[in-house]
């Protein structure tokens, strides 16, 4: 029986350490860890909970080893925080699920990721990276613009104020984000079209889409920005729906090209938004997508679009990891 260790950042641990709800937004609930562990057991694996990177360090130092690690650690410090567990496991030659050190480091930085996407010839909104407030004088993209921290997830740093229509707003929001998040700000051309998220399972030429869903705000919602707040209150504000076949095909093509081009592995999500010409544009990729059985986008869209149940999805992710490891692509 294959022995699977599970690495994760438990939200309640960080809350007890003094983290705010927003600071801990990317970390996982106990129900997520239980869901993953139960799914692995149902798929025939022997499991062991490891915990975060500090727990992993302790376990490795004491001689613990696993056949493979199911890694969903988001990390805490630095621009390479999502790559810390993969790097440590590489040192000990222990295989793991999901993307490697390079991909997890690159894709946390939205601006660097867009540079690669642009070089691949995949449509993405025009953008600038603001390192300091003086950099806003270099912005030559016409308004309206959309602003967000360059290295956050779960909608952190995105609010109704993220959509700016003039220079005064641009300067104000940039200043606020630079101060609050202590990292560069991504300034993008605002894409006015429909928004989607696409789920992908697999690696390289074996990667395939498992579904997508459109993000549609309800009629009574005044501000239709997919923000930290709206994501946390999606049951009251948003409907997730399945688009028509033509739209689906456009989203799938963009998402798969980006997934393969970036070198992502095993499973994750890519967010897409259409521009005013109806062209599907890459927004960002999540190579460590949320896996809460009830509330996370990847399990939701997999079941809604393709009838893939949660345990089956976890099994597909593991199958991808085992196949590439067997083929020498650890």
Largest sheet: 5 strands, antiparallel
Question: How large is the count of helical segments?
Answer: 12
- The count of DSSP E runs of length 2 or more, i.e. the number of strands, is 12
Name the poorly predicted regions: none
Mean pLDDT: 94
Structural class: alpha+beta
Q: Order the strands across the largest sheet as they lie in space.
A: 10-9-8-11-12
What would you call the shape? globular
- Portion of residues in beta strands equals 15-25%
Helix content: 25-40%
Taken in chain order, the helices and strands follow as: EHHEHEHHHEEEHEEEHHEHEEHH
User: Ends: how far apart?
Assistant: 20 Å
Cα-atom radius of gyration: 19 Å
Compose a concise summary of this entry.
The protein is α+β, with helices and mostly antiparallel strands and 330 residues long.
Note down, in words, how this protein is organized.
The protein is α+β, with helices and mostly antiparallel strands. It contains 12 helices and 12 strands. The strands form 3 sheets. It has a 5-stranded antiparallel sheet with strand order 10-9-8-11-12. Strand 11 (267-274) and strand 12 form a beta hairpin. Helix 2 (30-42) crosses helix 12. The mean pLDDT is 94.
């Amino acid at each position: 029986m294959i022995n699977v260790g599970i690495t994760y950042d438990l939200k309640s641990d960080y809350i007890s350490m003094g983290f705010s709800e927003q600071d801990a937004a990317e970390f996982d609930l106990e129900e997520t860890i239980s869901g993953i562990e139960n799914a692995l057991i149902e798929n025939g694996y022997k499991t062991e909970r490891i915990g975060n990177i500090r727990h992993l360090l302790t376990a490795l130092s004491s001689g613990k080893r696993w056949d493979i690690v199911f890694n969903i650690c988001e990390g805490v410090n630095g621009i390479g925080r999502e790559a810390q567990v993969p790097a440590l496991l590489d040192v000990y030659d222990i295989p793991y699920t999901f993307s490697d050190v390079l991909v997890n480091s690159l894709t946390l930085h939205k601006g660097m990721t867009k540079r690669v996407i642009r070089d691949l010839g995949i449509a993405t909104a025009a953008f600038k990276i603001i390192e300091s407030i003086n950099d806003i004088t270099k912005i030559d993209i016409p308004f309206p613009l959309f602003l967000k921290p360059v290295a956050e997830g779960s909608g952190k740093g995105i609010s109704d104020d993220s959509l700016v229509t003039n220079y005064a707003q641009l300067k104000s929001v940039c200043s606020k984000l630079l101060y609050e998040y202590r990292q560069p700000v991504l300034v993008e051309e605002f894409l006015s079209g429909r928004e989607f998220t696409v789920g992908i399972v697999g690696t390289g030429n074996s990667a395939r889409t498992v579904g997508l869903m459109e993000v549609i705000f309800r009629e009574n919602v005044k501000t239709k920005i997919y923000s930290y707040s709206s994501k946390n209150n999606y049951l009251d504000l948003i409907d997730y729906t399945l688009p028509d076949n033509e739209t689906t095909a456009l989203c799938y093509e963009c998402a798969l090209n980006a997934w393969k081009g970036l070198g992502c592995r095993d499973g994750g999500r890519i967010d897409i938004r259409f521009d005013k010409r109806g062209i599907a544009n890459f927004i960002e990729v999540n190579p460590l997508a949320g896996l809460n059985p009830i509330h996370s986008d990847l399990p939701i869209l997999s079941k809604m679009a393709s009838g893939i149940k949660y345990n089956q999805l976890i099994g597909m992710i593991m199958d991808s990891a085992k196949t590439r490891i067997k083929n020498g692509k650890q």
